[in-house]
Amino acid sequence: MTINERKQALRKQVAALKRAHSPEVLAERSREALRRLEATALFQAAACVALYHALPGEVQTADCLTRWYGRKQLLLPVVQGDDLILRPYAGPESLRQGAYDIWEPALSDASDDSAKPDLIIVPGIAFDRQLNRLGRGRGYYDRLLSDLSLPCVGLAFAFQLFDSVPVDAHDRRMTAVVTDEEVVE
Fold it and tell me: What is the pLDDT, as a whole number, of residue 109?
């Protein structure tokens, strides 16, 4: 089996695991994963955090955005062509549905692009104990992370953490992975 076939098989496996959990269970697990993330030294020390607005089935980050808005500078990714750019989060009213129906900051000439994150929180399909990440397969985060030299924390449910995941040379390792059950560093 090729590496791409192994990646696709793991994506299907994780999708089935997500479907096996009710929305209520995933919401509770999201709250616990966020509690663990917010307690990490990396998160506590960061003045500017790049987060993501979750898709269904991902650790839901809306509560984190609400809780830390005004206390830390928050950035969210915006899909621009084949790349992600980070834009300041200016509250829920500033969001619009962008590519793939992901809520993202509306682009405007007034947007401040000068903010540089101290920490980036990254979603993924699966992670492993060596801090490797399996994404959705389009490479958006791999391209973004290749240009950044800062701590990267994968955020996932415990059932998305494996002993190993298939990786390519361009796949960026995380600094840590936080789940609803543990922090792997």
Answer: 45
